[in-house]
Amino acid sequence: MTSYEIAKEKYAAFGVDTEAAIERLKSVPVAMHCWQGDDVIGFDSKEALSGGIQTTGNYPGKATTPAELMADLDKALSLIPGKKKLNLHASYAIFPEGEYRDRNEILPKDFAKWVEFAKERGMGIDFNPTFFAHPMVKDNLTLSSPDEKTRRFWIDHGKACLKIAEYFATETGEACVINFWIPDGYKEIPQDRLGPRARFKASLDEILSTPYDKSKVYVTLESKVFGIGLESYTVGSAEFCLSYSTKAGITPLMDNGHYHPTEMVSDKISSLLLFNDKIALHVTRAVRWDSDHVVILDDETREIAKEIVRNDALDRVFIALDYFDASVNRVAAWVIGGRNMEKALLSALLTPRAELKGYQDKADYTRMLAVSEELKTMPFGDVFDEYCRRVGAPVGMEWLLDCEKYEKEVLSKRA
Ligand code: RNT
Ligand code: ZN
């Protein structure tokens, strides 16, 4: 008997079908964020990162050209099992030879190279307008700016991005999730909290008045609690974004780094599922603040996955990764986070959901606790290895050897 066969029997004793779990996971898309590869710099302006977010570390070998970023993504994608989508930011536009367009004027053709990349790999594309790291961000404000010229520029950016999102969906044949997140906020205690939010609301209304095909473009809105240098007030707060999403019929996005450290996104998912057809997540690891550390297989990542799976919501939750660590090999950072997301989902699929719910309803909290603790030491790794084998991804530490080889042969040779 192989170790997988032994694991299969052990799970079967709990009423869990490992084969069904493996099959189900194969088709769950996870969006891989291009911005892990170059510390959120992009290609259009090469401005320093701003917007209250920060990468720390200067590990050598970061991608600085589209060709390098694509090569690194390819390496990372080959080492992560499962179905992926490519998640792009507008700042990663690749302009046709001799052309340049500012963010308010970008066109679908500025992303043709990415479409080609995604199509060749059979991937869909998700998208993000980039409301940071640009000279038109005035006093840390974009869509909520009191300066009409600034606000107008960013409204036009939002509209341009919606068209690009539709282009991605049409070209790849997969729906495109376009996520709006603005950094707007104040370091000092504001004397007008309503005005900026009213302007943000009006800006979003105007962007969303652009006709777009709702069957293939999902607009999401991401909230936040604070940013670096913007500690006292965030325009796009949780209340603002949830209310706006509900009213406008768009999709709310929760980033698990964007709440008070004792607030858990895993606890919020069920409420949002009751009031939305779809919801979206940015999975990250916040260490004391929205630090965007590499996703590990920690309790919260696992609990998020469990909530998605046990509420039968794998088709209703858009899962994207969002972190940026410049202190370790960036390709390895992608792979570790990506594999961990897959592990969390698989381990959720390997849970006797009905049985555990039943204990709760019968108030048998003893069994509920005992069984869920017992599951933690089940031979989960053997099932994950089997999943990797079946989808042609490296098993165990093989991926790291491959990654180290790539570092030696490619990354370390970069200027
Ligand atoms: C910032 C948000 C946002 C960004 C990306 C780069 O706090 O999480 O999603 O991380 O758009
Ligand atoms: Zn995010």
Unreliable parts: none
Number of domains: 1
Ligands and ions found: L-rhamnitol, zinc ion
Spatially, the strands of the biggest sheet line up as 3-2-1-10-9-8-6-4
Proportion of residues in helical segments: 40-55%
> N- to C-terminal separation?
50 Å
CATH superfamily: Divalent-metal-dependent TIM barrel enzymes
The percentage of residues in β strands lies in 5-15%
Structural class: alpha/beta
Count the beta strands: 10
CATH topology: TIM Barrel
Question: Number of helix segments?
Answer: 14
**Biggest pleated sheet:** 8 strands, parallel
Q: Which tags fit this structure?
A:
415 residues; alpha/beta; eight-stranded parallel beta sheet; 14 helices; 10 strands; 43% helix; binds zinc ion
Provide structural commentary.
The chain has 415 residues and is of the alpha/beta class. It has one domain (27-348): TIM Barrel (Alpha-Beta Barrel). 43% of the residues lie in helices and 11% in strands. The chain has 14 helices and ten strands. The strands form two sheets. Strands 3-2-1-10-9-8-6-4 form an eight-stranded parallel sheet, with helices on one face. Helix 4 (112-120) links the parallel strand 2 and strand 3 (124-128). Helix 2 packs across helix 10 (330-349), helix 5 packs parallel to helix 6 (194-208) and helix 11 packs antiparallel against helix 12 (365-375). The longest helix is centred in the middle third of the chain and has 25 residues, at 148-172. The protein is globular. The N and C termini lie far apart (50 Å). Residues 222, 255, 282, 322 line the site of zinc ion (ZN).
